[in-house]
Amino acid sequence: MYRLLSCVVLFLVTCTSGVTTRDEGRHLPLTILHWNDFHAHNTPYSVTVRDTVAGKDTTYFVGGSATVAGYIDSLRQTLPRVLVLNAGDDFQGSPISSFTLGRSQIELMNIIRPDAMALGNHEFDYGAEPLRENIQITQFPVLCANVWDETNSRTFVAASTITTKNGIRIGLIGLVAPDLPTLVVRDRLQGLKMLDIDSVLRRYIHELQSAGVDLLVVVSHMGIHHDKQAAQKHPEIDIIVGGHDHLTLYEPIRERRTIIVQAGQWGQYMGKLDLTVDIAGDSLYTWSGQLVEMRTADIAPNPLAAKKVAEFEAQVGDMMKEVIGRLTEPWKRSREQTESNIGNWQADAMLAYANADVAFQNNGGIRKDLDAGEITVGDTWGINPFGNHFVTFRVNGVTLRSMIAFQTEVSMREFVQVGGLRYVFDSSQPTGQKLISVEVGGKVLDDRALYTVVTNNYVFSNLEAHFGLRGERFTPTELPDLDRDVFIELVRRERTITPKLDGRIKDIAPKTE
Fold it and tell me: Cα(115)–Cα(117) distance, rounded to whole angstroms?
């Protein structure tokens, strides 16, 4: 009965004479297309899916800017009621994004022309000033309500905007993760201040409602936890288009009266949310959502985007294709609190480069796995795209022990790979009692000794999140070379790399099925 009623309503809307007064067209259709966490995956890439029935793998190509743009083009041509939203983190993830400080992504999105984009944390990776300059060339609204520009006494970009689609007035609010200062090297946020989420939502919801919008949409790069909290506290929000978690939500979820969607990562999927909006009641009448896989074989690419991508790839192509070494086995990141073979190799490389006692490389700084075979310069850029510097600082044994104890309690985002030390812990024990033993340089950690630590400047700027320490206690020494340059040079010297696990991080908790 519900499906039948929805179909009748849509039929009546379609058959109106084009006049969408509140008497003649109370229920109006709208389609929201959304994507997030693209991370400069401008060229298509392959995915492999296991066919359990046939017992074999199927590999095909997905994504790329031209494919995403082509799909959006096709729906805009057939559905004049399409709202297109990007939920942030379009920057960072390929060499061209780093070379151009994100400008490549803005130029490509100027071809796509989303109706709005929320700033993600990685949009700030190159610093606030380059981001300001890039935003000046945007041909679409860029939104973020919770970052305040203290220099100019206003939000860093527009907090909200109103657009109209198919006679529906839509209010849009942008939000970035409230823990942005722990996600970005702190000196790249100079002059910026985070605002309270609830306060800005109350303000801009009131402003948009006073302006007579029919639909309230938050374009969020906060992650699903914060999205759900916002929906609980602010039921006036009709829809949250989310990002940051890279969650592949095949179907929307509902928190109180708010619909929440998110579309995975890297342009593999486009979210498609079909709505019927009751403009008389300023509410949703019907809704259904899905993810559409951006298979290159099924979608005609946008020719302008394809040309632009080719131009960008040509800028970096020859350098990125240079083969510098070979892997005998795949480099794999860890998915739980344990060592990884790529983490071991990088931490040991940092240790040797800095002539330090202990090395810490954050899991989040290692962005890709790599199959066995040739290693190119481009592979190394893809694995370590951020262009961080290494820094060293000194700690005593008591502090180092507390740092490792803190690591046994952190989430995967703050978990670090280690070099120069080994430790044993029991994750089944209560908080504060998990760490069992620590060795540095093959010897039991000495509480009275001083140790030189090397890490990257991002981790150092966020010592509290990673190790429970306040950074101002320490004086860092910044080393001259970028992290990826150090790794590239080591691959050149070693030529053939055999990744290894050696038990340097060991959890002795009983394993459960």
Answer: 7
- Taking only the tens place, the pLDDT of each residue in 456-494 is 989 998 899 999 997 678 888 988 888 998 999 999 999
How far apart, in whole angstroms, are the C-alpha atoms of residue 220 and residue 502? 41
R_g over Cα of the chain:
25
For residue 503, give Cα distances in angstroms to 74, 177, 337, 419.
52, 35, 12, 12
- Bridge partners (DSSP) listed for residue 275: 30, 287
Rounded CA-CA distance 255/258 in Å is: 5
| pTM higher than the cut 0.85 | no
Measured between alpha carbons, how far is 264 from 84 in angstroms, rounded to an integer? 16
Structure tokens at 184: 């970005």
Q: Is 297 helix (H, G, I), strand (E, B) or coil?
A: helix
Q: What's the angle, vertex CA 22, arms to CA 18 and CA 27, rounded to 5?
A: 75
Q: Give the span between the Cα atoms of 386 and 484, in whole angstroms.
A: 9
Residue among 210, 227, 242, 266 nearest 32 (CA): 242
Q: What contacts 418, CB < 8 A, 6 or more positions away?
A: 339, 343, 347, 358, 359, 360, 361, 504, 505
Identify how many contiguous H helices and E strands the chain contains and give both numbers: 15, 29
pLDDT of residue 513: 59
Buried-state track 194-204, b at ≥16 Cβ within 10 A, e below 16: ebebeebbeeb
Phi-psi region of 93 (alpha: psi -120 to 50; beta: other; left: phi over 0): left
* CB hemisphere CA count around 273 (13 angstroms): 29
- Of 333, 339, 335, 327, the C-alpha closest to 371 is 327
